[in-house]
Specification:
Elements: E1 6-10, H1 16-22, H2 25-33, E2 40-44, E3 59-62, H3 74-88, E4 93-96, H4 98-106, E5 110-113, E6 119-127, E7 143-150, E8 152-156, E9 162-166, E10 174-178, E11 181-184, H5 192-201, H6 203-208, H7 213-218, H8 224-241
Parallel strand pairs: 1-2, 1-3, 3-4, 4-11
Antiparallel strand pairs: 5-8, 6-7, 6-9, 9-10, 10-11
Length: about 240
Amino acid sequence: MSSPSILIVQAGTPPDEIRGPLGDLPDWFCRALGRNANEVQVVRVFEGETLPRPDNSQVAVITGSWAMVTDGLPWSEAAAQWIRDAMAVQMPLFGVCYGHQLMAHALGGRVDYHPKGREVGCQQITLSSAATEDALLRDWPTTFTAHLTHEQSVIKLPPGAQMLASSEHDANQIVRYGPNAISTQFHPEFTPLQSEACIRRRIEVLRSEGKDPEALLNALEDTREARRILTSFVELACCELS
């Protein structure tokens, strides 16, 4: 039997109080993609599971995490090497949050804590002028809303990478590394439920940082355009692979 066409590289798992009611990260991505669990292959790299040899007949989605790229954990550095190997065979790759940062790190960029601190909640994403020429984004609206929750960011792009979108807080919200590789700092797989859970878990921390958790909660919305970037990339890649 052939492997599923979608590989989820799982880089972490939510805390119990989030995972209990909302499920694990692969559940979130399967729902966003409209796929059943038996249609995807999940490798829990954060628990030491070994990734398969990069295969350009699969599309890989690299998830977020509750770890930090700058920790240089062994499983994370092994996944970074796998990303380099996957790029060498032009395997379709889509990174999200930690996956976005890990791709940039793997390919020669710099990741670190954002000097302005945490970005959280629903925020406006603005496409760059380069996005009008991008095969995936050229028909996208110039601005759209996306769910975010992160402390670290891509501070410096890898050589040859192109910034395709930014927010007021973070210059590198969408990055393209090649014709088959792209990543987002925001979470296209999130619904308001995931964002709400992340905000409520850190209400006191957010207040101590001068943020208004109630305003963040009230601003949550469904982010169809952000989600469609993920689904369009995967659908296009799967069509080209079939």
